[in-house]
Each structure stands twice: as structure tokens, then as C-alpha cells.
């Protein structure tokens, strides 16, 4: 099982920890983390996700943090990304794990949600294994 990760670099210290959590989850499930691409932020992830889905990877995981702001900008970004990533997942019939904290999470909340990365990795691998079964093809 080969997995790629697209990760927003805007909050890079938090993202480093999330990436490590995703790596540990992949190893625990006998999967390989074949490609990691850092993008400026979560909003930029879908384009890279599409390129990864169009490769020989079995799944892609998106890691990011959309923090709470003083406007609804983060909510709009989160809703757009969620919709586009789900559309890509359905178009390519490959799982896209959502390890995005927020939108609207505070820094304190984000610190307690680092494990979202591992959860997203495990979910993507489980789905990819299910989709690889001959009876599902």
C-alpha cells in the first residue's frame, strides 16, 4: 500500500508533529509513505492531491490546520477544500484521508488534535485496502 501526503506548511511546527503521527500510523499498518508534498496552506492542497491521485499511489492524506480567525474566511476555505477533496476522491476512486484541523480551531484545540493525522492515515489505508479487493473491483 503506497500513500502520499499533502501538507500545509503555514503552521509548520504543528504540521511536523502531524506528519510524524501519520508516518507512525502508516508503518503500523504496513503501508509506505511514498511522497510528501508541502504546500503553502490547506487551500492549495487540492491541486497537488489531484496529481497524486492520478499516479500509482493507492491513497492520499491531506494534513492541515485552518485556524479560527476574525472573519468567516477559514470556514469558506474549509468548506471548499472538503467539497473539492471529496469530489476528487470520487472521480479517481481512491481514498483521500482528511487530517485537517478546523476550520475555526484555536491553537489550544489544534494542539490536542495532532492525532487527526494518524486517524486520517489509518482511514485512507483501510479504504484503499477495501477498494483493492477483487470483489469490489
How would you sum up this structure, described in words?
With 137 residues, this protein is of the alpha/beta class. Helix content is 49%, strand content 25%. It is built from five helices and four strands. A four-stranded parallel beta sheet has the order 2-1-3-4, sandwiched between helices. Helix 1 links the parallel strand 1 and strand 2. Helix 1 (12-28) packs across helix 5. The chain is globular and about 50 Å long. The two termini are 16 Å apart. The relative contact order is 0.22. The mean pLDDT is 93.
Key structural traits:
137 residues, 5 helices, globular
What's the topology here?
Blueprint: E1 2-8, H1 12-28, E2 32-39, H2 45-53, E3 59-67, H3 73-92, E4 96-105, H4 107-111, H5 116-131
Parallel strand pairs: 1-2, 1-3, 3-4
Coarse shape: globular
Proportion in β-strands: 15-25%
Percent in helix: 40-55%
**Count of extended strands:** 4
Order of helix and strand elements from N to C terminus: EHEHEHEHH
Strand pairing plus helix content: what structural class? alpha/beta
User: What is the strand arrangement across the widest sheet?
Assistant: 2-1-3-4
Residue windows where pLDDT falls under 50 for at least 5 positions = none
Mean of residue pLDDT values? 93
Distance between the termini: 16 Å
How would a textbook summarize the main sheet?
A: 4 strands, parallel
Q: Please tally the helical runs, counting DSSP H or I stretches of 4 or more residues.
A: 5
- Provide the gyration radius in Å: 14 Å
Amino acid at each position: 500500500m503506497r500513500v502520499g501526503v499533502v501538507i500545509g506548511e503555514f503552521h509548520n511546527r504543528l504540521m511536523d508533529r502531524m506528519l510524524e503521527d501519520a508516518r507512525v500510523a502508516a508503518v503500523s499498518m504496513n503501508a509506505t509513505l511514498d511522497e510528501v508534498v508541502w504546500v503553502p496552506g490547506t487551500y492549495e492542497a487540492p491541486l497537488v492531491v489531484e496529481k497524486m491521485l492520478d499516479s500509482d499511489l493507492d491513497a492520499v492524506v491531506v494534513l492541515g490546520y485552518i485556524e479560527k480567525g476574525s472573519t468567516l474566511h477559514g470556514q469558506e476555505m474549509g468548506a471548499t477544500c472538503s467539497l473539492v477533496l471529496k469530489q476528487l476522491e470520487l472521480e479517481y476512486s481512491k481514498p483521500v484521508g482528511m487530517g485537517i484541523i478546523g476550520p475555526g480551531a484555536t491553537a489550544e484545540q489544534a494542539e490536542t488534535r495532532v492525532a487527526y493525522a494518524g486517524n486520517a492515515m489509518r482511514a485512507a489505508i483501510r479504504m484503499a485496502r477495501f477498494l483493492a479487493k477483487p470483489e469490489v473491483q
